[in-house]
Specification:
CATH class of the largest domain: Mainly Alpha
Distance between the termini: 46 Å
Largest sheet: 2 strands, antiparallel
Strand order of the largest sheet: 1-4
Number of strands: 4
Bound molecules: fe (ii) ion
Shape: globular
CATH superfamily of the largest domain: Hypothetical protein af1432
Order of helices and strands: EEEHEHHHHHHHHHHH
Strand content: 5-15%
Number of domains: 2
CATH architecture of the largest domain: Orthogonal Bundle
Length: about 300
Amino acid sequence: MEYVSIRVSTLRGDQKINFNVFVKINDKHILYLRQGDSFEGVRLKRLKEKKLKKMYISAEDEPGYLDYMKKNIEMAYDNKSGKSIETRGEIIQGQQQSNVDQVFENPENVQVYNDTKQSANQYVDFLMRESKAVATVLNIENIDKSKSHHGVSVATLSVALAEKLKVDPKIVQMMALGALLHDLGHSTANLDTSKPVTQMNADELKLFREHPKLGAQIAQDKKHFDQLVVRIINEHEELLDGTGFPAALKENQIDPMSQIVASCNAFDRLVTFENIPRAEVAKKMIIERVGQYPLNHLQGIAEIIKNL
Ligand SMILES: [Fe+2]
Ligand SMILES: [Fe+2]
């Protein structure tokens, strides 16, 4: 039998699968989930805990899989589908995560980038239109400390913050794409980004400090990346007091959209990779990081988090 790989993040929600799913162990494909199973709740959690990114289906089941994905997404974006916002949010979060992984793996692919951009626009509409959308997505824990899940969390929080700051919705869409892809520079480097920065050794820290510039170079080389996206990738670790990296820019040199993503990135890093409880992070940042991030951002994030 011939197999094709599929992303685990595309298997979400209570729609039954119409194909068998396999895992690969020592070059052998082992049946993991049967036709008729679905991926909500406990089963999804177990799957994430395994930190599997890819699974396999038989090549002849591919049309069935594509059909499953299409139905899943249509249902998730339809607020009259009768499905809970949690199920819908899980499916949509998974789709965005899968998009980020695809761009990270194929930054040269114009089609992948354009699909991701279009899908990000639809995602921003969902976040702005449905009152529980932001909370639902942010409440999906990044169990396996995935970079692409981190991208979706940063984008989601950035959109909520931008809404509070009354940013023009057209710019918010482009900012969201930049936020999804902000850690593109981590896609090639051999660095374990899941650990706290405070636990990195000198070599790891050096790699870590290179990632914005590296990501911006990858994006700039491919002519299809939008300029604001490249800029956000390059500037998301800059700080208002000029102590950030890669260029130690001053406040007036950092694009306002990069500043929003930087604030939200710092927040999610502390929650996801430094393991600090969410409610504490908001307070901690206001006390310890004021001067590095705009105070109205930190206060805005604190309010958003309080309402989750
Ligand atoms: Fe980063
Ligand atoms: Fe990040």
